[in-house]
């Protein structure tokens, strides 16, 4: 069989390159490390192309891509570049130098805040919100709230990895926002 006749299942291919680190950052946690996806140029291209090909479609094409701090920056910026649209970073509190809007959300123990520049989104812009994974959903939902507060229309959320057992994709579904995911680890 030649390379040109091999059919590639993108999800399975990417899953093979996601490293699972047991008991990190605490006992019982199976951490899904996406850095191997970025280290191999072929794998990184497959990853980016999966997003780009989806969002080139006229009905899904955003006006801007927003990425969540920090791994959403890596994926989101490259996807925005390939789509020839702008990129907007949603940062952890205190990292943006200009006037911001903020959204605080609950974590398992405590809370966190993300911010967005007030001039990042124009009213009515279609926004793709992207991150590396969705776990509990707090960061993704906070990002949606920020973007919508500025008049953006979040058309879809996208992640490499969904961890549905942690409830984030279910919470996101309750907002009515669609989720595009490339790999799912459910109870594994």
TrEMBL record:
Keywords: Cytoplasm, Glycosyltransferase, Purine salvage, Transferase
Role of this protein: Catalyzes a salvage reaction resulting in the formation of AMP, that is energically less costly than de novo synthesis.
SUPFAM superfamilies assigned to the protein according to its UniProt record, in alphabetical order: PRTase-like (SSF53271)
Record flagged with keyword Ribosomal protein: no
CDD domains listed in its UniProt record: PRTases_typeI
Domain Phosphoribosyltransferase residue range list: 37-164
Protein name: Adenine phosphoribosyltransferase
Subunit relationships: Homodimer.
Gene Ontology MF, one: AMP binding
Source lineage: Bacteria, Pseudomonadati, Pseudomonadota, Betaproteobacteria, Burkholderiales
Family: Belongs to the purine/pyrimidine phosphoribosyltransferase family.
Gene (UniProt): apt
